Amino acid sequence: MTAALQGIKVLDLTHVMSGPFCTRQLVLLGAEVIKIEKPGDGDVMRYYGHDPQFGRNSPNFVGYNAGKRSVALDLTTELGAEALRRLVADADVLVENFRPGVLAARGFGWEECKAIRPNLIYCSISGYGQESILRDNPAYDHIAQAMSGLMSLQGGPEDPPIKAGFPLIDTFSGYMAAFAIVSALLRRERTGEGQRLDVSMLDASMVLMSSMILKYNATGVVPPRVGNKGFSLSATADMFQTKDRPISIGANTDKQFEALCKLLKLEHLLEDPRYANASGRWEHADTLRPVVREAIAEWHAEELEVALNRVSVPAAVVRDLAGIVAHPHFNGRDTFQTIQVPSWGRETKVLNGGFGADADAPNSDLPPPDLGEHTEDVLRSIGFEGEELQQLLAEGQVQ
């Protein structure tokens, strides 16, 4: 068994979400990831939600950092900086998500680290990129959603701009960074050269919204907000209320519309020339939708979901997190992994890499590190002993 990134050493100077999410993907592919944290509090994500039952290992921290090794280093001291230089010299990849210029000011920018390790892959994740008129602007996910135009696409025509209900740009930026790192490692195999990677949350959001931006670039027309309707704008691609819960249906094609009508016992609609094709159904949506809506209201949501999918009409009950996490779809799949969390005294489920493979699939059942848990072992591995080691351990003391 050979994981894709087995033998690759990653130096993780990231915090909060996009960076740790990126390096978690590298863990799942077999990389050894050393997470550098500041003494005292460490990564602020450790306390996400401020729930005392989790101490300094919040569920989000656990999920994004399981399988890594934590080293507490004070980079403002001479010995702390020397330790980081030795770690850079031993690394294949360095990932950071500070604001542009912060690490360079401390002597650990791209040029400085390249001088230490010429074939290093140096990945920076930031709000607006390393070279941009906006480079010095701070950013969070909801700021990026506003800046990128993503909020302007959510909801219906009469709604105010609405952000997505979870930090999708942070997550997607992390995935993009992981993809960039794997591509850079492949390039290094072929050329022997390192590479600087510049991942911007704003740029990543443009890629995420490509289906909207491509059409706008070609036509100059801002796409309308469609609310819960399908992006095809078909009259029968929408969210409908059943007896108990809403259901989303995607009857776009003539064949799907025919199957929907037969299932709902609305065959008479198939004889109506107004609904003979997709354009007609859209033009006369105001008369079509109420009839379909009334018929759907007679069903229970899960029964209708099963029935529609059996006749090849895409449909899904609008579930909450409790409903989808418990879905039997995940039985026998590796979407989730169970890991032990020593500080909690119990286990929890975390997300895996999001894809399967017939061999060497993403996998890591290692626990999350406590703050500074691996400091002494890692420092010894890069040559620190005696008084220097004790001084570094004192500087990186964990409260």
From TrEMBL:
Gene3D superfamilies with a match to the protein in the record: Crotonobetainyl-coa:carnitine coa-transferase, domain 1 (3.40.50.10540), formyl-coa transferase, domain 3 (3.30.1540.10)
Pfam families according to UniProt: CoA_transf_3 (PF02515)
Signal peptide as annotated in the record: none
Region described as Disordered: 353-374
Molecular function via GO: CoA-transferase activity
Keyword annotations from UniProtKB, A to Z: Transferase
Keyword Transferase listed: yes
InterPro entries, A to Z: CoA-transferase_III_domain (IPR050483), CoA-Trfase_fam_III (IPR003673), CoA-Trfase_III_dom3_sf (IPR044855), CoA-Trfase_III_dom_1_sf (IPR023606)
Protein name: CoA transferase
Highest classification ranks of the organism: Bacteria, Pseudomonadati, Pseudomonadota, Alphaproteobacteria, Hyphomicrobiales
